[in-house]
Amino acid sequence: xxxxxxxxHGVFTPTQSITNDELVVAFNAYADLWNAEHAEAIAAGEVxxxxxxxxxxxxxxxxxxxxxxxxKAGVLDPTRMFPALxxxxxxxxxxxxxxxVDACGKxxxxxxIDAGEIDLVICAASNHERAYPAxxxxxxxxxxxxxxxxxxxxxCSSATFGIQAAADMVRxxxxxxxxxxxxxxxxxxxxxxxxxxxxxxxxxxxxVVLERSEDAKGARFDVISTRCATQFSNNIRNNNGFLRxxxxxxDDRREMQFMQNGRKVFKEVLPMVSTHIAEHMxxxxxxxxxxxxxxxxxxxxxxxxxxxxxxxxxVPEEGxxxxxxxxxxxxxxxxxxxxxxxxxxxxxxxxxxxxxxxGAGYSVGSVLIERA
Length: 372
Description:
The chain is α+β, with helices and mostly antiparallel strands. The protein contains 11 helices and 13 strands. It is 33% helix and 22% strand. The longest helix has 22 residues, at 262-283. It is globular.
């Protein structure tokens, strides 16, 4: 058995960003257009008028201040309100693979290895732009990796589930080096015309290199233990899929985008995640006082503050539980890895931390790591 370690990480950030103020201007313009078009039905009480949004509402509800997207113009067009990403022909790289190449290149450079030394590519994301061929195999081909690749989807927990799968294979010796890459085009499945959720998501891609600790060429984080858990819930869902045409309905239906029962999610997920992390640490012989850092899924600041307080037994101190969602918004599976990538360089040998992601499923994955 070999000791798996994270030896490189990278983040691809789109060049375009949308502030809360910009988003609110577009949403309110859309709401005004909709209300004017349905004025008679609204006056008759047949439908409800679209409410206005505000930057204060967004920040107070989520802690988000801006988000990065692949296409800003389409999202901010009041007559459109979704990104414009032209279809690519079969000879062009997919959007997800193109994002992945950038993030993977950064992770490989940090690890000091060539793409040809990679034995496994896992593309772990919440929404894949096609069912097959696997995006991971396309990434493998574009980078020039050896071995094999496959896609994985456990919604917002995809990164930690992917790390567990890769770490297990490194530990067992079936692969020597692996890439776990999370290209998230969340702007494509978000309903930007829904006031309750129009501000939640952004686009990004992360990548981590896992390999045998003995092969590490520089600083590394040993993967001490991993744990995943799922419990079925329909409170976060997306009903799109190839079976859509069999229903004889190809129109733009709301349930085909991101759907969430926020209050139930908050009430049910937080205890699940807090207990999961605490039990994982306890079984590994770790105490709350041993933790230097918590890199949590970046969905909502209130949720993270709650989990951090439960796990540590106190309010987290500055830097112990870093948040990045104020800049990136919710980036699904990539969020905890962005936090890790941007807030881990200062750790010293012996420092311990937990990477945890959670979301639809319900699903939760935790990775206990130690700076070596």
